[in-house]
Amino acid sequence: MAVQTPTRTSTTEARHAQEPPRNGPPWIEKWGGLFFVAPFGVLFAFFLLWPTVAGLWNSFFNTSLAGVKQEFLGLQNWREMFGDPAVWDSLKNTLVFTAMSTPPLVIIALVMALLANRKGLLGWLLRFSYFAPFVLPATVVTLIWVWIYQPGFGLVNGLLTAGGFAEIDWLNDENRAMLAVVITTVWWTVGFNFLLYLAALQGIPEQVYEAASIDGANGRQKLFRITLPLMSRTTGLIIVLQLVASLKIFDQIYLMTDGGPNYATRPIIQYIYESGFTSYRIGYASAISYLFFAIIVIVAVAQFKLFSGKKEAV
Amino acid sequence: MTPFTPSRRTLLTGALGLALSGTLSGCGAFGHGARVREWNLFGGGDGARLLQIHEKFVAEHPDIAFEAHTLAWGPPFYTKLAMSAAGGRAPEVATLHLSRLKGFSPTTMLDPIPLDQLTEAGITEQDFLPETWNRCLVDGRLYAVPLDQHPFVLYYNLEICKKAGLLGPDGRIKPVKGVDAFLEMLKAVKDTTGKFAASVETTNPWRLWWTLYGQLEGKFFDDSGSRLALDDAKALEALQLMAKLAADGLTPKSSDYPSLVAQFTNGDAGLSFNGEWEVTTYQTAKMPFSMAPFPVVYDVPKYAGDAHTFVLPHQAGRNKDDTAATITYIAWMLKHSADWAAGGHIPAYQPVVASPEYLNLKPQAEYRSVAPDVLYDPDAWFSGSGAQLQNEAGAAFAGVFSGRTTPRQALDQFKAATQKLLDTPSPV
Questions:
Q1: Are the Cβ atoms of A66 and B254 closer than 8 angstroms?
Q2: Whether the predicted pLDDT of B9 surpasses 80
Q3: Which residues pair with B303 in a beta bridge?
Q4: What span, in angstroms and rounded, lies between the C-alpha atoms of B361 and B339?
Q5: Assigned CATH for B151-304
Q6: Continuous segment of H or E residues that includes residue B310
Q7: Is B151-304 in the same CATH topology as B30-147+307-335?
Q8: Which CATH number is correct for A73-136+186-313, 3.20.20.70, 3.30.360.10, 1.10.3720.10, 1.20.1560.10?
Q9: What are the tens digits of pLDDT across the range B331-346?
Q10: What are the extents of the domains in chain B?
Q11: Cβ–Cβ contact B43 with A under 8 A
Q12: Residue B246 in contact with residue B402, Cβ under 8 Å?
């Protein structure tokens, strides 16, 4: 790929040089491209840039969804936020979820990709069954898993009691609820990371393995010396995507536990939603969103630094 | 799988046909195409019943273009309604829990009900209990028309209670009064079922606690309405009773709402403490059951409950014809609320309460006497059905049943959470 790119560019340039000059004023030549990005540009400005600015603006006001006249508060929302234990508790839940869900979502995806990277019916079956849950909507996934976790007649507790263990009230136990959500999430979304790994695996040229075999490398050596190093960039990408996806946790928890029991699983996005929409406090919710925004930026930048450092090493 | 898959063209033709018929039939009493869009939150058995009632309404009113939408109960419904009203593009009419009226910022998000038009439609103040009617007034203006009341009641399994010797000669459960009699009754039921006496929603026991605390005549706010005035001794008494119920195995230690229904249906529990809206579920399950007012465990008869009302969410440009048609709808619904009462709710419209049609409903008419003693949630912007205060109570009190927290800890947590809500600047 890296070798081909310059050649292609030079051909394009060469063709461009041969073409006769076009009709029309020169500014169209120069700025005409803008017309093509304009539709997206307008939507982007309207639905992303503007809300971002409006959110910051609102965080300094007591903006209310109820349409009551708004007043300037200065930093009052921000002060309230730093002293609000619910903000920190829910932020902690989001971080705990991220820490618990990211490693299995990366490692299990890798193992599954290694298992499914084979030809024939078995490979097809594994690929299909590993990816299938990912296409389900959140509502369906949570509905299924709430039944699976149900004490009395749920699948998990049925297996536990059959094995001689005590039942666990997964979703109503403060110490287990988050684990239950993590297990559901892994089952549901691991397929996406699996797909990225599978594509990376299939991108490794066969000759490399052939050469290694001729040199007498065994399967283990091939895995740790060839496969994993050649996929390190994919791993980096998957980790970044997964961290961002896990930090955005909301749907599963909202649908499975509604943040309970006793707020043990309420993620920060749910608290933002509750403050802003069910309690009408848009101003305060905007301030919390900005705190969370800052944290995501920090994580992304840190990850980017690590990632780009690794690239140089390879 | 589907016998008939409509093509895009049939759908378009159909839509066109509907639009045309709408235009043609739209020249009745309400001028051209008076439109009533209704949003409600009835997703359960009462929702199915509402659909049937609506069908009847549509059949009787070909001149009104009527459209009803059911949204998910609780916060999702209220959030969507608030946003539509804040934007001034709300539906013509919506349901609202009476306990949430003041927290819904009526002056900005609701339009007042035109009293003269309501009177013209045959609905007046005298048709309602004064307690209910007065709650619908904010700053002297009417913002809601009550449809029903739905108290916390006692469901009982006829076979189990008969075996336990709790039924009187008339086949009804013998009323009990006082803590000891209450516990004795539960014990008799537990001995009969071999499992539990009563099914309760332990994951949010707000309604049970609020009933017990209300029966102890406990106050929530002081007279100014802005300071917490919980009576610790009474609150603890109620919580300790709840802890005892679970500890003695009279109720489950952990049970969410679906389990509450399941345990009563399958006979694990001979009684159930719940709102009256599950009557259709148990009738459909062909259970031998009846209902009664929740026992007066403490000093005075009080029953946690709420009322469904109709409100006019704020529209930037309210159309006169549409409003007139909306009032017609509201009045019609009230006059036909005996059908609605079959789902368990006590009609708010008193002429229906006195009608034989309602009185013959069994068991729905058995607990109608509690209507004046329905205890609404405390008055605050964060209070009401499905609102923040109930969630805080659920979070704090669920542990009392499971044994995870002591009543004292639970009360302290609940008081701290309520205080935090009080300290939060009101958004309405």
A1: no
A2: no
A3: B374
A4: 10
A5: 3.40.190.10
A6: strand B308-313
A7: yes
A8: 1.10.3720.10
A9: 999 999 999 999 999 9
A10: 30-147+307-335, 151-304
A11: no
A12: yes
